[in-house]
Write a structure and sequence with these properties.
The structure is a single chain. This protein is an alpha+beta fold. The chain has 4 domains: about 5-80, Ubiquitin-like (UB roll); about 80-190, DNA polymerase, domain 1 (Orthogonal Bundle); about 190-225 and about 260-310, no CATH class; about 325-515, Aldehyde Oxidoreductase, domain 4, CATH 3.30.365. About 30% of the residues lie in helices and about 15% in strands. It has 15 helices and 17 strands. It has a 5-stranded mixed β-sheet with strand order 2-1-5-3-4, with helices on one face. Strands 7-6-10-9 form a 4-stranded mixed β-sheet. Strands 8-11-12-13 form a 4-stranded mixed β-sheet, covered by helices on one side. The protein starts with a strand and ends in a 14-residue tail after the last helix.
Length: about 525
C-alpha cells in the first residue's frame, strides 16, 4: 500500500496516497482545482501553475507532492475573496489579461508582493515576474494592474462587456472575453471543461499514453523535460544575389502560445475547441488535437481528454515561415519563403505579400524543417510591410524617433516611434474604438511580440530539420524586465471598427529594425543584454 500524505489545502486538512505525483497533478486530478494551469510541465518555466506553499510562491509542476507533507498549500481558489476580487478587477480594468491562461499564476506571484503596506517599486514587480511567461499583454498592463490593486475602494471604469468582446474579436480575431472569471482562471480551457472521469491521453514524440488522470498518463509515457540545446540559430534560405537596397533573413520562430494544444470529446461527439478563450496567434487554427481526441474517444468508448506536452507543441506546432528577402530602392525585389513537408498551402502567405508589396516576387523554397503556417500573425503581410516601411523611412531621412507608419491588411493604421532611451510611442487608428482598454492592451501586446520577433526570438533546428530548443525559456520571448515602456495614443473614429494591433505589430518591427541599424539577420540582439 502507498504511504499516506497529509497537508493543508486552502485551509482544510487533506490526506492522499503518496504515488510520486507532482503537486500540480494532485491539485488538478484529485481536488479538481483548475486555477493552476499546465503550460510547460515538467519544465517549471512558464509560471502558470504557481501556488503558495506556506505562503510563498512555488511552481507546482516541479514540486513533488510529498514535499508538501505537513505544510499549507494555497491555490487561487483559497485566497481571501476580497483580495482575490480586488486583484482580478484591477487586472480587468487595466487590460492585463487577454486569454487568461497565465493570469492565475501571475496573481499568485504578485499578491504577496503588492498586498503589503507601502509602495512596491515596479522594478521589484518586474523581477518577480521573471518567473513567468505572458505572451499576450506585453507586461506593462500587468504592472499597472498590480499598482492599482494596492488601492482599496478605487472607482472602477464601467465598461460594456459586449463592446470589450467585440474589440477583442476584431483584434484576435477569435472569441475572447476578459472579465473577472477569466482572470481567475475560469476561461473555459479544454482541459478544465472535460467531464469528470474522462480518460487523459498525453502525446509526446508521436507516442500516446492513456490513463485515469494526467498523473497516470505521465507515468505511462515516462516523459522527460525538454532542454535548451545551445545550438546557434540557422537561416535556411539564402538572400538572392544582386545589388539591393535592403536584405533580410529570418529564422524559425515559435508562436509560443501558453495553453498547450488540448481537446476532449465523447464517443461520436464534437471535440472541444483547442482555442478556448483566444486565437493562439493563428498557431492552433489547424491543430489536429480535436480529431485525435475524437478518434480516441470512439476507440475507447468513453470521453477522452487529448493533450500534447510542451515539447510536442514545439515539435509539431507550426512556426513562422523563415524568409530571405532582397529589395531594390523602388520596392521591387524577391522574397523567398521556406515551405516544409507537412505544412499547409502557403498561397495565403504569397497573397499577403502581394497585398502589401506588389513589387515583390515570392519564391517558395522547399526546405527541411518543422511545419510552417501562413496563419500566424500577419504572416507574409508583416514581412513585406516592414521592408517597404523601412525603405520609405530611409527615403525620407526618418529615424526611429520620427516613427514608421504602416497600414494593416484590415485597414487599421499605426505609427510607431522609438525614443533615444528605448521607450515606444504608438499611434493607432482602428475605426470605432469600442473599448479603449482592450485596444490599448492589444497594441502593447503587439509591440512586445514585434520587438521579440526582431530582436530576440528564434528556435534552433538541426540539419535534419528537427527543433532542438524545447523549453519555453529558449524561445527568446522578452521578459518583463526587458520590455520598454509603451505609450499608446488612440485616435477615435466613426468608421467601422477594424484591426489596429496588426498594423502596430508591423510598424513596431520596422522601427525596431531601423533602430538596430538594419542588421541583415533577425534576431538582431540575441544573447545581448
Amino acid at each position: 500500500m502507498p504511504d499516506r500524505l497529509a497537508f493543508r489545502l486552502n485551509g482544510e486538512a487533506v490526506e492522499i496516497d503518496d504515488d510520486t505525483s507532482s503537486l500540480l497533478d494532485v491539485l488538478r486530478d484529485i481536488f479538481s482545482l483548475r486555477s493552476a494551469k499546465d503550460g510547460c510541465s515538467p519544465q517549471g518555466q512558464c509560471g502558470c501553475c504557481t501556488v503558495w506553499v506556506d505562503g510563498r510562491p512555488r511552481v507546482a509542476c516541479v514540486t513533488p507532492a510529498r514535499r508538501v507533507a505537513g505544510r499549507a498549500v494555497t491555490t487561487l481558489e483559497g485566497v481571501a475573496p476580497d483580495i482575490r476580487t480586488r486583484f482580478a478587477e484591477a487586472f480587468v480594468d487595466a487590460g492585463a489579461s487577454q486569454c487568461g491562461f497565465c493570469t492565475p499564476g501571475i496573481l499568485m506571484r504578485v499578491i504577496p508582493l503588492a498586498d503589503r503596506r507601502g509602495e512596491v517599486p515596479d522594478e521589484a514587480v518586474r523581477s518577480a515576474l521573471a518567473a513567468h511567461l505572458c505572451r499576450c499583454t506585453g507586461w506593462q498592463t500587468i504592472l499597472e494592474a498590480v499598482g492599482a490593486a494596492r488601492t482599496t475602494g478605487a472607482t472602477r471604469n464601467e465598461r460594456d462587456p459586449l463592446l470589450t468582446a467585440w474589440r477583442a474579436q476584431v483584434e484576435g480575431p477569435a472569441f475572447q472575453s476578459s472579465g473577472v472569471r477569466e482572470v481567475l482562471g475560469d476561461a473555459g480551457f479544454a482541459v478544465d471543461t472535460a467531464p469528470d472521469g474522462a480518460l487523459v491521453a498525453l502525446s509526446d514524440r508521436g507516442r500516446v499514453s492513456v490513463g485515469k488522470g494526467l498523473a497516470a498518463a505521465r507515468r505511462g509515457l515516462e516523459q522527460a523535460p525538454g532542454r535548451r540545446s545551445g545550438r546557434p540559430l540557422s537561416y535556411p534560405l539564402e538572400v538572392p544575389e544582386g545589388d539591393w537596397a535592403l536584405t533580410l533573413q529570418t529564422t524559425w520562430v515559435e508562436p509560443a502560445y501558453l495553453e498547450i494544444d488540448a481537446s476532449w470529446c465523447r464517443p461520436g461527439g464534437t471535440p472541444a475547441s483547442p482555442l478556448a478563450n483566444g486565437g493562439a496567434f493563428g498557431g492552433k487554427r489547424r491543430s489536429p488535437v480535436g480529431a485525435e481526441a475524437r478518434a480516441l474517444a470512439d476507440e475507447r468508448g468513453q470521453a477522452v481528454v487529448e493533450l500534447w506536452t510542451r515539447e510536442e507543441v514545439v515539435r509539431r506546432g507550426p512556426k513562422r515561415p523563415p524568409v530571405a528577402a532582397a529589395v531594390a530602392a523602388d520596392g521591387t525585389g524577391v522574397l523567398r519563403v521556406a515551405r516544409t513537408g507537412g505544412s499547409p498551402d502557403l498561397t495565403p502567405f504569397v497573397a499577403a505579400v502581394g497585398a502589401a508589396a506588389p513589387g515583390l516576387r515570392v519564391e517558395e523554397v522547399p526546405t527541411v524543417g518543422p511545419p510552417v503556417s501562413p496563419d500566424l500573425r500577419s504572416a507574409g503581410f508583416a514581412e513585406a510591410a516592414v521592408l517597404l516601411a523601412v525603405l520609405g523611412a530611409r527615403a525620407q531621412g526618418a529615424g526611429p524617433a520620427d516613427g514608421v507608419a504602416v497600414t494593416g491588411s484590415a485597414g487599421g493604421r499605426a505609427r510607431v516611434a522609438i525614443g533615444p532611451k528605448g521607450a515606444v510611442v504608438v499611434e493607432v487608428w482602428a475605426g470605432e474604438v469600442l473599448d479603449e482598454t482592450v485596444l490599448r492592451s492589444y497594441c502593447i501586446g503587439a509591440v512586445h511580440q514585434a520587438l521579440g520577433w526582431v530582436r530576440s526570438e528564434g528556435v534552433a533546428v538541426d540539419e535534419g530539420g528537427v527543433v532542438q530548443d524545447l523549453t519555453v525559456r529558449s524561445f527568446g520571448i522578452l521578459s518583463a524586465r526587458d520590455m520598454p515602456p509603451v505609450e499608446v495614443r488612440i485616435h477615435p473614429s466613426d468608421l467601422a471598427p477594424v484591426n489596429g494591433s496588426d498594423a502596430v505589430f508591423a510598424a513596431t518591427a520596422a522601427v525596431a529594425w531601423l533602430a538596430d541599424g538594419l542588421l541583415p539577420r533577425w534576431p538582431t540582439r540575441r544573447g545581448v543584454r
